[in-house]
Amino acid sequence: MKTRRDFLRATLLGASATWTVPMFVENTFAQLHNDTKDLAVQPVTGKDGPILVVIQLAGGNDGLNTLAPFADDAYHKARPRLAKKEKDLIRLSDYCGLNNSMPWLGSQFKEGDLAIVQGVGYPNPNRSHFVSTSIWETADPANRSNTGWLGRYFDNACSGSDPTVGISFSKTQPEAFGAARNPGICLSTPELYRWINGNDDSKTAEEFFSDLNRPDAPVEGGSIAMAAGGKTGAIQGESNLSFLERVALDAQVSSAKILEIASKHKTNVQYDGTPLARSLNLVGRMIAGGLPTRVFYVSHGGFDTHNNQMGTQDRLLGQLDSALKSFMADLKQQGAADRVVVMTFSEFGRRVGENASGGTDHGQGSCLFTLGQGVKGGLYGKYPSLTDLSQGDLKFTTDFRGIYATILENWLKTPSKPILKGAYEKLSFMG
Amino acid sequence: MLPQAPDPWTIYEAAHLLNRAGFGGSPSDIKTLHALGRTKAVDSLLKPAVGPDEFAMPEWCTPAKMAEDMQERIAQFRKLREETKNMTPEEAEKAKKNVNQTEQRENRQHGIEGQGWWFRSMLHTRAPLREKMTLFWHDHFATSIQKVKQPVLMMMQNDLFRRNATGNFRQLTHEIAKNPAMMLYLDTQNSKSGKPNENFAREVMELFTLGEGHYTEQDIHEAARAFTGYQLNRQNGTVFHNRRQWDDGEKTVFGKTGKFDGDDVVNLIFEQPQAAKFMAAKLWEYFAADNPPPAAVESMAATFRSANYEVAPLLREIFLSKQFYAEEVMRNQIKCPIQFLVQMLKQLDLNQAPQGYTMIAQQQLGQVLFNPPNVAGWDWGKAWINTNTLLTRYNVAGFITKGAEKAPGQALPVDESMAMARKSDDSEMMDDDDKPNAGKRKGGGVQAALGKKATPEKVAMVTEVAARNWRGPDYDRIAPRELRKRHEDLVDSLALRFFQAPLADKNRKRFIAFAEEKEGVVFTNHEVAELVHLMLSTPEYQLT
After folding, report:
1. Does A38 score more than 70 pLDDT?
2. pLDDT in tens, B52-66
3. What domain of life (chain A) (predicted)?
């Protein structure tokens, strides 16, 4: 029987592929219905390895009202309506304080588990949501890369071809997962993450289904003129049909496992009903179930506050705070808190001056959180000047790729250079 | 001019045209189109027999009724302000909340009606290209009901797209700059002299006309100043230019200087040769394939410019070109969820879907009408597919093909978006006949059952009942009893219906083997449904 590995090898890499034989795929097919046992997956990193949870704050989170420089006159001058006063903040230093919609994160800062990097950005900032998100996700400001930084991590550092190496809780694959070999999977509702036949004699149908969704020969059509691919979890140069066949196979391979894990592991920690909290709840269940996943990706949207920013941003940050509080309590209860680090990012910060609609327009340079026991809490980087601006925007002081490098090397324990295609100075928020 | 294809064509090519320029059809639809020959077929799509008023929109979408509703709301707020003067703050808060809730409920109801109306229009229209282009413009000039909040404005925008479906791109851009839904979506409404909001100015260049890299940041700053002062009249939904809020100073855009307003900037944009290239490439990608060769783009852009940005001549060139029917173009497009749903219903000879179901399916598959994820519209192609959405497509197909009895409610996903949908909703709620004009009719089906007070609970109940009663397609028509005796012919006939191409040999053999295995005492509708669901649960079926 052909496997995903054979399929990938045959279709994409030719006979020269040399990576070691993972047990996983064979096992899963053999035991599709009855196991979530400790499979021999991800031999390099192992199932007890470190986990990264990435939370995308989509829309461009305003860093200036997340970590507010209350002591700076220029801040109040630029934002007569929007500026946060000292009393409305959780004071972190003589200069700045955390938006008080995030009391739990404030307490984590004090306990030393929350690091906030100030002034994060990249040279020649792009103010388009789409281009800038793409730059963050590919870690490539020239924006010509077809693979994402996490996809390159999967390719480079996670041997084997388990599709659950990366899981995104969304309806679409994040660009960060774009990979040459293994772009991870995507799911939103575990209970429905399977082929539902709904029939008495489902066995026959399922066998046929399984056959039809398992390509058994390299797919022809390499000559088909195709999009460069990669931006959407596709493999570069892959035809639409072979892409679909691969996804179908990944779905089959991962569905039995995920269904069982999701139904088995429940927590008594209370989560909110927000989409973010629900996603983090699922992440908690996947971790409890022992999936070999290295990276979970969730998105928290709505930060494009051109209009009446104050209420919206505070509410969204409050949701983030509450969801993370539940998630960390959940992890603590399962004894996995030391295995997980959370990183937030947003495609850009916002203009220093407020606009006429009580909002802010697209800017550059923002702050970023990393959270977990593996993090050395505190403020990192330098708060950008509010008077020395570039076209009304903050000038970034820390390149985001330095943060990626820190996490890759000090947390995921892998050389960052091949993944980031360059050497970036690490920060000291991880040991 | 792109090299043209000859007039004689195959049935597969006819199916390809109907799939891409519309939402596909049943075998008899395809035969009808094929009989016309290529050129006449293309012309019949470009000049449909029915006008843009083919289906009347729900009553609340007419300008008169809209103005009336808006004024009623304003009166209501005035009344509320009077009443709350003598109330305690708590009481006032409560009264306000009540009024807001009533309004929200009505908006929600209208939103659902509007979505259902559009979906049914796509399914029933005799002008499929017009509907396909309406969907294109909705994605191109993306506007979301989540921010706009007033369904009537979304429907007016939808009407604008339909009327200009194959009309003039420059004209449509002018209109969209002053379109109420777009203005609310991109904050033009609040853009004033001295403090311009750049949102619209940026997107009109980046996403609507030129693309990244064909303007400078300076162009955007200056254009934003020109787009100041446009305001929406909340009394009647019209837009006017308030000269006092307009920045009347000199601006420099694309190297030209003047006291520009919004219209001037749009005209300047269309003086850029890039505008024709940008749109020609995008239309090619929508209808044909990704990454059009630069020479083809140049050729199409020339057509487009000489036609003064009229879309119809450009589409004609595309649909008659040899390249549109090339091997690597045909059956190689990943269906968007709307295409997947509408085309599947048409192929199954269904003229409706179970009530409320199509809306839930849209949510699960990642494309809800009137609700694109952001101003760039949806991500297309491979982005529609991941492990999650692929399994959901298979399960949606299971529910539609087998009916509730055999796939009991299972394909109805129960996640949060679903719960939301259940609460309020039923896109097909008024759908108990063939024409999508149910909003106009009084009474009828679910609407009558619900009356005016469509509480979330009530709607959920009705939706579920409708889903439970779903019986699936008429398999006696799709697979006549006589045909079922010959497994190979049965499989070939179904393959033509669902794939419009010869099957890969291995799959054909599998389907035939399945049919053989299924053959019991008689080959019942139930077995046919099984076979059809299996055919639809394949990677190949996701392509058109």
Report:
1. no
2. 999 999 999 988 888
3. Bacteria
Q: What is the mean pLDDT of residues B178-204?
A: 92
Q: Which distant-in-sequence residues (6+ apart) come within 8 Å of A107 by Cβ?
A: none
CB contact under 8 A, A192 and B395: yes
Would you put residue A53 in left (φ > 0), alpha (ψ -120 to 50) or beta? beta
* Chain-chain contact of B199 with A171 (C-beta, under 8 angstroms): no
Residue A91, SS3 per DSSP: strand
What's the mean pLDDT in B294-300? 96
| In B407-455, alpha helices (H) | 416-424, 445-450
Residue A237: Cβ-neighbour burial (10 angstroms; 0-12, 13-18, 19+): middle
Instruction: Please give the structure tokens belonging to residue B486.
Output: 């010959």
Q: Which of B466, B354, B344, B356 is nearest to B394 (CA)?
A: B344
For B353, phi then psi, to 5°, come to: -120, 165
Q: Which of B421, B427, B414, B415 is nearest to B358 (CA)?
A: B427
Q: What is the pLDDT of residue B138?
A: 98
Of A128, A195, A250, the CB nearest to B537: A195
pLDDT score recorded for residue B22:
98
Q: Select from B416, B343, B490, B514 the least CA-distant residue to A197.
A: B514
Pairing assessment for the beta strands A89-91 and A97-99 based on DSSP bridges: antiparallel
Whether the CB of A129 is below 8 Å from some CB of chain B: the reply is yes
Look at A247 and B386 and tell me if their CB atoms are within 8 Å. Answer: yes
Nearest-5° Cα angle at A246, A240 to A250: 145
Q: Do residues A184 and A251 lie in contact, with contact meaning Cβ atoms separated by under 8 Å?
A: no
C-alpha pair distances (Å), B174 with each of A28, A416, B135, B170, B322: 57, 49, 19, 6, 33
Distance CA A397, CA A400 (A): 10
End-to-end CA distance of chain B: 26
Euclidean distance between CA atoms B447 and B115, whole angstroms? 15
Residue A118 near chain B (CB below 8 Å): no
The model's pLDDT over B95-120, given as tens digits with 9 standing for 90+, comes to 888 888 888 888 988 999 999 999 99
Q: Which of B380, B77, B141, B363 is nearest to A189 (CA)?
A: B363
B388 at A interface, C-beta within 8 A: yes
Terminal C-alpha separation, chain A: 46
- Is A377 within 8 Å of A341 (Cβ atoms)? no
Query: Which pair of tokens denotes residue B162?
Result: 């339909």
Q: Which residues of B touch A144 (CB under 8 A)?
A: none
Helices in B235-310 by DSSP H: which ranges?
262-271, 273-287, 294-306
For residue B517, pLDDT over 60 is answered with yes
Q: Most A CBs within 10 Å: which of B144, B197, B225, B391, as the mutation test of the A interface?
A: B391
- Spatial separation of the C-alpha atoms in residues A272 and A143, rounded to whole Å: 37
The reported pLDDT for the residue numbered A32 is: 29
Over residues A61-77, mean pLDDT? 97
Task: List, for residues A162-196, the tens digit of each pLDDT value.
Answer: 788 999 987 667 889 988 777 888 877 676 777 87
CA distance A340 to A287: 9
Q: Which of A193, A226, A361 sits opposite B388 (nearest CB)?
A: A193
CB contact under 8 A, A196 and B392: no
With 0.80 as the threshold, say if the pTM is over it: no
Chain A residues with CB under 8 Å of B333 CB are: 240
Of B190, B340, B386, which to mutate for an interface test with A (greatest number of A Cβ within 10 Å)? Answer: B386
The reported pLDDT for the residue numbered A216 is 58
pLDDT for residue B431 is more than 80: no
Cβ distance B539 to A229 less than 8 Å, yes or no, reads no
pLDDT confidence of residue B74:
87
- Which helix (H) or strand (E) segment holds residue A264: the answer is helix A240-264
Per-residue pLDDT reduced to its tens digit, A307-346:
889 999 999 999 999 999 999 999 999 999 999 999 999 9
